[in-house]
Amino acid sequence: MLKKSALCALLWCAAVLLCALDHAGPANWLIAETDRKDTSFDVFYIHPTLLSDGKKPYPDFGDPKVRARLVDFSAAQTALFGKKARIFVPAVRQLEFKRCLREMKRTSSPRIPEDSPRFAAVQDAVAAFRHYLARWNGGRPYILLGHSQGAADLYEVLCRVPEISPDRGFAAAYLPGLAGLTEEQIKKDLSGRGIFPAQDEGSPGVVVIWNTRLPGGKKDPFLVPGSYGINPVNWRRDGFPAEKSLHRGMILFDHRTCGHAPALPATDPELVCSAALDENGSLIVRDVPEAAKKLYAGFLTPECCHAGDVWMFAGNLAENAALRTALCRMKSGLDRARTLIRTGKAECVVLQDGRTARIESGRGVSPLLRLYDRDREALRGGILVDKVIGRAAAAIAICGGARFVHGEVMSEDAQRFLKENGIPSSCGLFVKRILNQRRNGLCPLEKSVEGIADPAAALSSLRRRVAELQKMSRK
User: Which of residues 309, 326, 343 is at a domain's end?
Assistant: First the structure.
């Protein structure tokens, strides 16, 4: 028989789970920037587990100290977006630290069961998000951002609110610190919604997850074999390492004092690290500054950097959120361009300010090269959508000053070449390399630019090879 105290606790939890908090009033919002102007997108954020209380399983939002800690941490973490975004942070009944760990051990699934005391936060988050969407969104692009328990709460929101759609402003859900979700489960949970696990840097309407670790170490709750993950430094799914040159800066923040976070030190060469995904979907970081190790390493195991999942990649996260929300605003134009290519009506399309500016037809890289030769400014500042992007096409895009490149098919070499030259990209299908027509070797145009790091030199080599092929065809 249950002891009286345990029975009372169960009855109390059951009563709590009957209804969500009322987010119609300001009392149940930690931050709600409804009046901010001159911003590009919105951030709907849920903080990680911040409280440990043996007596109270849920936060007492009426306690000034509790509320101040939640508000201060949320304000500090969302400050990474600077003045680009409006911030919305609801009060949610997250389970306190020790109880949350016990619940994670009790339920092996990354999803939150409805009979779990953690589900109170899910109810609150769903209600708050629906209030935000109905009253405050106003058709603006938005991202979801949560870490750890906050990430788990937001994944449930994503699954339980069908109004979340790339066609209605949803750009991305950044859910670092959420372990155990496979790529297959995410696709199944969000089937038919146009929302997928992120595979590249630029596609809008995606789920983005990573779990940070130092090399080596033993198993902890955030190391789950088979988990989906993406590298937020080079935005690749394979184990190809991202060098420190691609890292956009981390923030050093002491959650114990919970003061104001400093501005992003994007130009500080000391506050960067390299990163690569391992076979378990974990993000393995190397060359981590000692100051960052002291703050973020050692959660549950010495190598676990769970506490730094957001802070260590703040610059990359902020940059990527701005990109995906900008592309979300242009989604209709991107969709039109992709339809033209898929239906054989175009080989490449250039968008300027979201509108179709140029359409070229033909085969291979010739239409893109012809476009560039006819007007050297045609690509500048625009979005290039092409049927196939290999290193040769990437060289033209770089020399032409494209702002963003999408390839229905894109080689890994092209993605890396674009990234090295500051151009983000997305694709319908990643391939190792672009093959020749017989599919028994590398495309001859790709051979002409292979290993050439300078885009202008690559373009010159491409022109020579095109001239040779044209001369041979006339014989």
Answer: 326
| pLDDT tens digits, 302-354 | 999 999 999 999 999 999 999 999 999 998 899 999 999 999 999 999 999 88
Residue carrying the six token digits 């105290």: 5
Q: Is the dihedral of CA 402, 405, 408, 414 positive or negative?
A: positive
Coarse DSSP helix, strand, coil percentages of the chain, rounded to the nearest 5 percent: 40, 15, 45
The single-letter DSSP state of residue 423 is -
* Structural domain harbouring 337: 332-474
Query: Given this model, what pLDDT does residue 256 score?
Result: 72
Amino acid at 363: R
Q: Which of 376, 338, 333 is nearest to 353 (CA)?
A: 333
Q: 276 φ, ψ to 5°?
A: -150, 145
* CATH (domain of 405): 3.40.140.30
Residues 266 and 219 in one domain: yes
- The answer to the question of residue 344 being in a domain is yes
Q: How are beta strands 404-411 and 383-389 bridged, if at all?
A: parallel
Q: Are residues 455 and 409 in the same domain?
A: yes
Tell me the CA distances in angstroms from 439 to 61, 87, 443, one per residue in order.
63, 50, 8
User: 215-234, pLDDT tens digit by residue?
Assistant: 987 778 888 889 999 999 99
User: Is the pLDDT assigned to residue 170 strictly greater than 80?
Assistant: yes
Q: In sequence order, what are the residues at sequence separation of 6 or more whose Cβ sits closer than 8 angstroms to the Cβ of residue 23? A: 29, 90, 91, 124, 127, 128, 131
3-state class of 41 per DSSP?
Answer: strand
Q: Which string of DSSP letters, residue by residue, matches 147-211?
A: -THHHHHHHHHHHH-TT--GGGTEEEEE-TT--S--HHHHHHHTTTTT-EE--SSS-SSEEE---
Is residue 462 within 8 Å of residue 391, measured between CB atoms? Answer: no
Same domain, 50 and 144: yes
Q: Any idea what DSSP says for residue 442?
A: B
3-state secondary structure of 212: strand
Q: How far apart are CA 90 and CA 71, in angstroms?
A: 10
Contact between 212 and 244 (Cβ < 8 Å): no
Residue of 175, 214, 224, 164 lying closest to 198 (CA atoms): 175
Tell which phi-psi region holds residue 277, choosing left (phi > 0), alpha (psi between -120 and 50) or beta. beta
